[in-house]
Amino acid sequence: MFRFGRTATAAIALLAMAAPVAAQENNPFLPWRPPETVNDFGGTGLIQTPVARAAPDGQAYAGFTYVWPYSRYFITVQGLPWLEATLRYTSVANRFYGPEDFSGFQSYKDRGIDVKVRLVEGNATWPNVAVGLRDIAGTGLFGSEYIVADQSLGDFDLSLGMGWGNMGTQNKFSNPLGLISKKFKTRPTGFTEGGGALSTDFFRGPVSLFGGVAWQTPLEGLRLKLEYDPNDYQSEPLDNDLKQSIPLNIGFDYKPWDWLQVGAALERGNRAMLRFATTTNFHKAKGPGKIDAPPPPLMPTAAAAAAAPSAAPAAAPDAPRSASAPADDVRTGLGRQAALDGLALQHFARMAGEIHITVAGTPARDSVAVSYDLARRAAELAPDFTGRIQVTRVEYNLPWMVTSFEADSLRRDAGLRVTSRAPVPAIYPVPPVTGQAPDETVRKELSAQLQKQGFFLSAVDYKAPKVTLFLGNGRYRQVPKAIGRAARTAAAVLPPEYQEIEIIFVDNGMEMLSATIFRVDLERALSPYGGSIEEAWMRTSIERPSAKAEDASHPEDVEYPGVGWNIRPALRQTLGRPESFILYQAWVRLNGTLVLAPGLNLAGGLGIDVSNNFDKMRIPSDSLLPRVRSDIKEYLQQGTTAMTYLQADYTREIGTDTYARVYGGYLEEMFGGMGSEVLYKPFGKEWAIGLDVAWAKQRDYDQWFKFRPYDVVTGHLTGYYHYEPLGVDANVKVGRYLAGDEGATFELSRTFDSGVTVGAFATFTNVSPEKFGEGRFDKGIYFIIPLDNLYVKSTRGSLGWLWRPLTRDGGQTLSARRPLIGQVNAADGAALRRNWNLLLD
Q: Which InterPro entries does UniProt cross-reference here (predicted)?
């Protein structure tokens, strides 16, 4: 058996040293590689086994797999370029959940979480290598660990790995890690009753090899798969051993559309498998096109005409050159230029003395002229580049035309100038500055047009050639889009003497963000042969607001109280209970807000029952702690129609970068009370620190106006950190929780380019696992989906879904409405660059 282990180690090493002729991912002349397909457990893989290759960053899958007796429902997200996570429920058809008089004929349900970490990103000379943990935070019924490597050989993908636990029962041999410590030689048996605990018995016990091959057939979207299964199915959980005729699984995956994967296989030599999975990418999923009111047309002024490249003087040969825009900005500018001629930018690369541009498609005009304009655009976006610019046009994945240009020659011919932070100088006279504010007709038109665009105008300060608008953004989720809409509207309505437009966003009576943009930059960016949004970015000033609305020359006549309301369908549910797998309520949510003064609001909500099956809930709380959450059965059954909240709050800025909020009322469905919050968030920085303290009293089960006897003082000190390159947020919260326990909550989330947020948290307090009860500590996973991705009109709202394996009382916090960090982050300049390409949407 030890000889077999050495053979396995040698085989993995051989795979690692293989040097196949692999496709370079960035090569524009090779076919695009489709996203990875998922295996039976929901992770990227073959049929039962995983592979080391990672899906594209942000790729998400939701699907279903059936192979008797298991039905698996899963959600998988490539949360980071190297991290994959899966949430899964498994139904075991030939085992009951509980006694018939309690659970009926409901089959046994198991929940689990899988994690895979890519250790090495492969290339043409080195394989992908990954390590994974399966079923780590549930009952551990299918608990496994593995290490796997894979490599591509043309249209074939080969994988080879080693598995422990459930993946280590077929032709198993001694654990190589036993050479490090004897504890790795044996693996504890059994599983965690009730689930929720985090296993720590990783990589222990015997191991087995697994591996397989996937072939990308000539039929697009069709892959054939063959694998060696490391599970002999003679140690299945719940005493549910299964017959296996041969340890090979064979099947296929087919992708008829970009969003759907279908798979089928013969497993164990005697059972058919069927799989469906939908997939999307959270970076690319932008939602439907919008039917928002278009901004009023912007007519060019003489200054803009003077700044056009055709009229501008050529730069002197020895003129100092400014730095080039970042590569992403250059790529965006070239993509927009290519789109003007119906082409798609496939590839952009800048090397020491050359720029290579590759576009695909058939242009609507002369190809040489198209290539010339692309090269000229590249020279404009990279003013410090002095070498050769090569443009390649591709049709049917083959080079069709290759043209080359010298950057300096392009600048001399086109009269291009290097860019600077200052506005583009004009050689024609600019409109005269009168020093007087526009007449009342123009001011009313400005307010009306901004209202059509979804803005609330509270004040305007006219100091020609600069105008400052104080706006509330009620429509646009992406701040750059709001900046563009507001600035274009102001430029279109106001006289051309206002060449500098400052937008100050006001939220809850607080000036949060100042963006100053030049009118000439907007006009040039809107012209196909003028400037670009990248140039506008380089000259736009994003700062902490220094002006106040009350000091503006023309405050708007705002009437209080302001009233807002909405009504929408809603769904709340709990999954995986013994009484029924899905307990739900469909109801209608009615929400309203009264704005009594700047920063002072009164908000309330009603939930009206439409249909529910909460009457099936039968398990009462058995908690040894104060029942701050575990009495959920009583709240759901007695509060089917209820007042979900009724809260007053007052928010203001109390110092530079320091914000405060006081609040009180019926704060959420289970608690009322009063509290205060203070947040320090330096403008443009990626960190913040906040403190919140509240006195909370438990609400009655019917969730109207009465209270129960229990009350508590709760509060936390929270540190926030945002890592912008990946859109990752990390929070640590330390303090006292609703049950009086003390400890810390660790939270990690990521917001993708589409605005979708995926996060996880875990709370550890001074309550012992025995007193906490089933699950041992509080934890959960959540998704936040912008409604902007679902609606045909722009909106700032969102939908949230929180999954907790269990509802216990330890580590519970108040469900805060409109926390300060959310209000401040929505207008923070540090995150604007990512969405700046939406400036002209």
A: YbjH (IPR010344)
Angle at the Cα of 35 from the Cα atoms of 29 and 41, rounded to 5 degrees: 155
CB atoms within 10 A of CB 665: 16
Residues 6+ away with beta carbon under 8 Å from 559:
none
**What are the φ/ψ torsions at residue 664 (nearest 5 degrees)?**
-170, 160
Residue 23 structure tokens: 């496709």
Average pLDDT of adjacent 10-residue blocks, the chain of 841 residues:
39 36 39 72 97 94 96 96 95 88 84 94 90 86 95 93 95 93 84 53 93 94 96 93 96 94 97 97 86 83 46 36 62 84 84 84 78 87 85 75 81 47 45 82 94 94 94 92 94 92 93 92 76 80 90 90 90 85 93 94 96 90 93 94 96 94 97 97 91 97 96 97 90 97 96 93 92 86 92 89 90 91 76 81 85
Q: What is the SS3 assignment for 621-670?
A: CCCCCCCCCCCHHHHHHHCCCEEEEEEEEEEEEEECCEEEEEEEEECCCC
Cβ–Cβ under 8 Å, residues 109 and 87: no
Q: 716: which residues sit within 8 A by CB, 6+ positions away?
A: 691, 692, 733, 734, 735, 736, 745, 813
Which residue ranges form the domains of the chain, and what is each CATH number? 2-281 (2.40.160.40), 314-414 (3.30.70), 440-558 (3.30.70), 562-830 (no CATH)
Q: What is the DSSP pairing of strand 687-699 with strand 707-723?
A: antiparallel
Are residues 739 and 810 in contact, defined by beta-carbon separation less than 8 angstroms? yes
Closest listed residue to residue 683, CA positions, set 816, 463, 832, 787 = 832
How many whole angstroms separate alpha carbon 783 and alpha carbon 760?
Answer: 9
Cα(772)–Cα(197) distance, integer angstroms = 11
Distance (Å, whole) CA 691 – CA 599: 19
User: 805 with 779: CB under 8 angstroms?
Assistant: yes
CA-closest candidate to residue 649, choices 694, 706, 698: 694
SS3 769: helix
Q: At residue 183, what are phi and psi to the nearest 5 degrees?
A: -65, -20
What angle separates helix 407-414 from helix 367-381, to the nearest 10 degrees?
Answer: 100
DSSP state string for 493-558: HS-TT--EEEEEEEETTEEEEEEEEEHHHHHHHHSTTS--HHHHHHH-EEE-----GGGSSEE---
The three-state DSSP-derived secondary structure of 193-230 is CCCCCCCCCCCCCCEEEEEEEEEECCCCCEEEEEEECC
Instruction: Tell me how far apart the alpha carbons of residues 648 and 561 are, in angstroms, rounded to a whole number.
Output: 14
| Residues 555, 559, 560, 564, Cα dihedral to 10° | -110
